[in-house]
């Protein structure tokens, strides 16, 4: 089986490739693509592959822009950090996914699903499923998140949150009025829930556009985010994510 991986995080892409090879030693990784632009150019000339694993949010846009530009004739399995309700919609539409962070078990399950998909696969059906997935992903983001305080279930408006961050394996929300709340969501799930008004600066931080005062060039072509609220830790955007961060600042 020949597979293409579309993923903008180099470490994640390599982890997925290594996991696939461990599961199936005969599986061939044809190419690892890191952007919408690169994928479109690749698919214009290459068609010798059986399956695509694709991240949804790439540095230069959603992966669905690839499939709008190029006719895809093989099944696509999405790698996603979106919330469980979106994932349920994927299942209902016949689309399979790997939830980030993935593991060997979830990747194995995806390959089993592929074996089922290919038996009754048609290009027309695949295009319809991808369109449905896009509609689900690009719907209006959630307006609130839920926190639990003892027996209480409390909704907090996302617009009140300056940033989400991971600390000592726990995830917290910090509001603009400096209140700190512990959450049960992962940062990956929150990235999917909050939509384009938040940016994933790095593995630890998800920052609201409203909380960003400005940004500064930093060592090794990283970017330092300066907040509108008091916060003691430095929030750095990696060199690879810097171009997409600057583009996001201009658009949101």
Automatic annotation (TrEMBL):
- Highest taxon of the source? Bacteria
One GO MF term: DNA binding
Ranges for the Response regulatory domain?
2-115
Q: Would the keyword Chaperone turn up in this protein's UniProt record?
A: no
Please provide the record's keywords in A-Z order: Phosphoprotein
Instruction: Give residues where 4-aspartylphosphate occurs.
Output: 55
InterPro entries recorded for this chain?
Answer: CheY-like_superfamily, LytR-like, LytTR_DNA-bd_dom, Sig_transdc_resp-reg_receiver
SMART domains, sorted: LytTR, REC
Q: Which Pfam families match?
A: LytTR (PF04397), Response_reg (PF00072)
Q: Where is the HTH LytTR-type domain?
A: 145-251
Q: What is this protein called?
A: Response regulator
Species in which this protein is naturally found: Maribellus comscasis
């Amino acid at each position: 089986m020949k597979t293409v991986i579309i993923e903008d995080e180099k470490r994640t892409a390599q982890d997925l490739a290594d996991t696939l090879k461990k599961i199936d030693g005969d599986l061939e990784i044809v190419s690892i693509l890191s952007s919408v632009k690169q994928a479109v150019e690749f698919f214009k000339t290459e068609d010798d592959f059986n399956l695509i694993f694709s991240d949804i949010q790439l540095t230069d846009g959603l992966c669905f822009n690839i499939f709008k530009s190029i006719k895809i004739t093989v099944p696509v399995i999405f790698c996603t950090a979106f919330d469980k309700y979106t994932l349920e919609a994927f299942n209902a539409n016949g689309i399979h996914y790997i939830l980030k962070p993935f593991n060997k078990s979830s990747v194995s399950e995806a390959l089993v699903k592929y074996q089922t998909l290919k038996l009754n696969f048609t290009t027309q059906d695949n295009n319809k499923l991808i369109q449905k997935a896009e509609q689900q992903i690009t719907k209006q983001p959630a307006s609130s998140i839920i926190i639990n305080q003892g027996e209480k279930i409390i909704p907090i408006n996302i617009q009140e949150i300056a940033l989400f961050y991971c600390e000592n394996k726990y995830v917290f929300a910090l509001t603009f009025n400096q209140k700190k709340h512990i959450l049960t969501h992962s940062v990956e799930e929150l990235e999917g829930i909050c939509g384009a008004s938040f940016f994933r600066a790095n593995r630890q931080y998800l920052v609201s556009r409203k909380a960003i005062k400005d940004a500064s060039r930093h060592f090794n072509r990283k970017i330092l985010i300066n907040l509108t609220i008091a916060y003691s830790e430095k929030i750095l955007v990696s060199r690879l994510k810097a171009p997409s961060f600057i583009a996001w600042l201009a658009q949101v």
